[in-house]
Design goal:
Strand order of the largest sheet of chain B: 1-2
Oligomer: heterodimer
Largest interface: A-B, 13 and 10 residues
Distance between the termini of chain A: 56 Å
Radius of gyration of chain B: 31 Å
Shape of chain A: elongated
Radius of gyration of chain A: 17 Å
Helix content of chain B: over 70%
Number of strands of chain A: 0
Helix content of chain A: over 70%
Number of helices of chain B: 27
CATH topology of chain A: Helix Hairpins
Largest sheet of chain A: none
Order of helices and strands of chain B: HHEEHHHHHHHHHHHHHHHHHHHHHHHHH
Strand content of chain B: under 5%
Largest sheet of chain B: 2 strands, antiparallel
Shape of chain B: globular
Structural class of chain A: mainly alpha
Chain lengths: 101, 645
């Protein structure tokens, strides 16, 4: 049996779920950020798989966009985290609850 | 003028002149009392002349024929539409009433000019008086139920304005309110009756059409005939102050005395009786009751009417015996005589028979107006003292008032050859013929009438002056005395000119007066002698008790019964208690509703719900970003599951 579309999609889904779990369960901000990147890349994988199995390049064009956006997002996000660390001296997510009612 | 002069146009002039006077006075002449008086008196005067003119022109028309003239008031097109024209109906009955209303009204207007000479509000008085004349003439000339109801209410408004004329006095304001509200209760029944007739006759409300329907098919109203008749009678119960809605008339004496004479003796209260005679054909329909009222069995609406009239007559006579205010005695006397008229209507078996009630209405208008005006003359002379025990000795000091008052009293008591004898005898004869128990009630009331009227006469006019004011009394001015004399003449002759004969097709003339003088003794001797005997008994009893009395001996003789009579059998107290109970019950319900439903359920409920929701939603705001991300993912999962299931 060959490797079909469903295998690639399963891998992509697994990666996405691992990323999601990381965002929800890890305490360090940087690890949360990395998990977020993992989720984006899972989506990239799904798009590329679809592009390969449909025979056109639409999916790969989407991946281009996603990579670009992710890069910009990382730049901005890390700047925010550095600013936050300078202010609060912590990168633990549970310390940042000042919006609690 | 080359257009033909039609008699019915005269009816418009008669009707609208008092309205014009009222409008002019209200809008213009309020500051000038003399101009108001002149306007008002001339309006009535011209209306009176117009009525005489109408009589001369068309007085000899046949019975059942009428002249009418119409103005369309309401016109709703379509098969289920409604047309209500304002038609003035001039037939023998309304012509007779026109003459009486405008004639007596004119005399009272002239008298008022003298009586109200020092009152600062007399311009307003004459304006209200003109409004009243317009409304009353509207009732007389009405030709359909809606028109009659409109003018019925207008008369109620005029009565309210005039009873409460001295509105700074709380008693007068209360009396005006009481009169209006009590009338409203009666008018409610009246309106229901009109609606019932409208539906039972497929949308006709004018008298001629309804009369034609009933004469063609007496069963046309089906099971509603009795109920409709009874409901329409409710209007007369309110307006003519029958039991149990009689409580407003004695209180209405708070108004000026000419008002009491005009409205509450001669004309407005008679409107109820006039209306009953106008629509008497309703009672000629086959008697029937709806299923829920079948317990009434063979009792017809006319029987109920007759008994209500009789009860009113007797009750009012009993209450009059112990009243000490001269106007209140006359008010109860009016109530009693109205009871006679209503009883006469109830005893009539044909439309022709209902003329007896109108006969008594007309004679009563004359002598009751006379009595009230004479009482007003007395009241003015003793400086507004109305207690009869503070009068006395007025026979020598006020001769004209004394003699006219005596004539009025004799007429009221039914002493021949005065008019009251003939009309009262006609009623007693009717009762003797058709319903003996009512005859007994009528005779008993006649005896009581003579008793309390002569009580008034002996105490207030004869004997010695009982107070200083009575000692300084002097005769009133000519402007007040002349109407008294004219009304006295009317009281004497009205019985002999053949009013009943005119209403059934004969002529109104004095030529047969010698035979008419003793006619009752030939036609119905029992009734005539019984009435005469009752009157004599009453006079003798009054002479025995009050001939030389310094104070009232009756409370000593009758004790608590006399006290009950003086307190008017506690009707006012019972009604006040009833109203208070209803009021309190209603306010309890309203309070409960306001406290528990509006404030509790709705207001506090809304508040509580918001608070609960807020508590719940606050639990979601933890401030942790990871929790929010978790909620995102969970929500997304739910949506995916729901979209893909």
């Amino acid at each position: 049996m060959g490797i079909g579309l469903q295998h690639y999609l399963a891998v992509s889904a697994l990666l996405f779920c691992i990323g999601l779990l990381g965002v929800v369960l890890r305490r360090s901000l940087l690890v949360i950020y990395m998990s977020l990147e993992l989720m984006l890349n899972a989506a990239n994988l799904a798009f590329v798989a679809f592009s390969r199995f449909r025979g056109d390049l639409d999916g790969q064009v989407m991946v281009f966009f996603i990579i670009t956006v992710a890069a910009a997002e990382v730049a901005v996000g890390l700047a925010l985290i550095v600013a936050l660390y300078r202010r609060r001296q912590t990168v633990q997510a549970e310390d940042l609850a000042s919006l609690k009612l | 003028m080359n257009s033909e002069f039609k008699p019915e146009n005269l009816a418009w002039i008669i009707l609208l002149l008092p309205l014009l006077s009222a409008v002019l006075i209200t809008l213009g002449a309020r500051r000038d009392a003399r101009l108001s008086a002149v306007l008002s008196i001339s309006a009535v005067g011209i209306s009176f002349v117009g009525s005489i003119g109408l009589y001369i022109l068309v007085g000899a028309m046949e019975v059942g024929k009428a002249y009418s003239t119409a103005v369309t008031w309401l016109d709703i097109p379509g098969t289920q539409g409604l047309q209500i024209p304002l038609i003035l109906l001039v037939d023998r009955l309304s012509l007779m009433m026109l003459l009486v209303v405008t004639g007596v009204g004119l005399l009272i207007h002239i008298y008022s000019a003298g009586y109200m000479r020092e009152d600062p509000g007399r311009a307003r008085y004459f304006g209200c008086l003109s409004l009243f004349m317009f409304s009353m003439l509207g009732i007389v000339l009405a030709s359909n139920f809606v028109m009659m109801f409109i003018f019925w209410e207008l008369v109620g408004v005029s009565s309210y304005l005039l009873i409460g004329f001295w509105h700074e006095r709380p008693a007068a304001a209360d009396a005006a309110k009481k009169a209006f509200l009590t009338n409203r209760v009666g008018d409610f029944g009246f309106l229901l009756g009109i609606l019932l007739l409208w539906s039972a006759s497929q949308g006709r409300i004018d008298f001629e059409a309804l009369q034609a329907k009933v004469s063609v098919n007496p069963g046309v109203f089906g099971a509603m005939a009795g109920l409709a008749g009874l409901l329409i009678f409710c209007g007369a119960v309110g307006k003519s102050a029958q039991f149990p809605l009689h409580v407003w008339l004695p209180d209405a004496m708070e108004g000026p005395t000419p008002v009491s004479a005009l409205i509450h003796a001669a004309t407005m209260v008679a409107a109820g009786v006039y209306m009953l005679c106008r629509i008497f054909f309703i009672y000629l329909a086959t008697p029937a009751w709806p299923a829920s009222m079948a317990f009434l069995g063979n009792v017809t609406a006319l029987d109920i009417i007759a008994w209500v009239g009789a009860i009113t007559a007797l009750l009012a006579a009993l209450m009059a015996i112990q009243q000490n205010d001269i106007k209140r005695i006359l008010a109860y006397s009016t109530l009693s005589q109205l009871g006679y008229m209503v009883m006469a209507v109830g005893l009539s078996k044909t439309a022709a028979g209902s003329t007896t009630a109108i006969f008594h209405l007309i004679t009563h208008a004359f002598f009751k107006a006379l009595l009230f005006l004479a009482a007003g003359s007395v009241i003015l002379a003793v400086h507004h003292e109305q207690d009869i025990w503070k009068m006395g000795g007025l026979r020598q000091r006020m001769p004209a008032t004394h003699w006219t008052l005596l004539i009025g009293t004799l007429a009221l008591c039914g002493v021949p050859p005065l008019s009251g004898f003939y009309s009262k005898d006609a009623i007693l004869a009717l009762a003797w013929e058709h319903h003996r128990p009512l005859f007994v009630v009528g005779v008993a009331t006649a005896a009581l009438t003579a008793f309390y009227m002569f009580r008034l006469y002996f105490v207030a006019l004869l004997g010695k002056a009982r107070s200083d004011q009575a000692g300084h009394a002097h005769e009133s001015k000519a402007v007040m005395v002349v109407p008294l004399v004219l009304l006295a003449v009317g009281s004497v002759v009205m019985g002999l000119v053949g009013v009943e004969r005119y209403l059934v097709g004969g002529a109104l003339e004095v030529t047969g007066w010698q035979t008419a003088l003793l006619a009752p003794f030939h036609h119905a001797p029992t009734a005539a002698f019984a009435g005469l005997g009752a009157a004599a008994a009453g006079v003798l009893a009054a002479w025995a008790l009050y001939g030389r009395a310094a104070s009232d001996p009756l409370p000593g003789l009758l004790g608590p019964v006399a006290h009950a009579m003086a307190q008017r059998f506690y009707f006012d107290e019972i009604y006040a208690w009833l109203i208070r109970c209803t009021h309190e019950a209603l306010s309890y319900v309203a309070d409960w509703f306001d406290r528990w439903i509006v404030a509790g359920l709705l207001v506090k409920g809304a508040e509580g719900t918001s608070v609960l929701l807020g508590w719940g939603l606050r639990l979601l705001q933890t401030g942790h970003v990871q929790f929010y991300a978790f909620l995102f993912a969970a929500g997304l999962a739910v949506m995916l599951w729901w979209a893909l299931r």
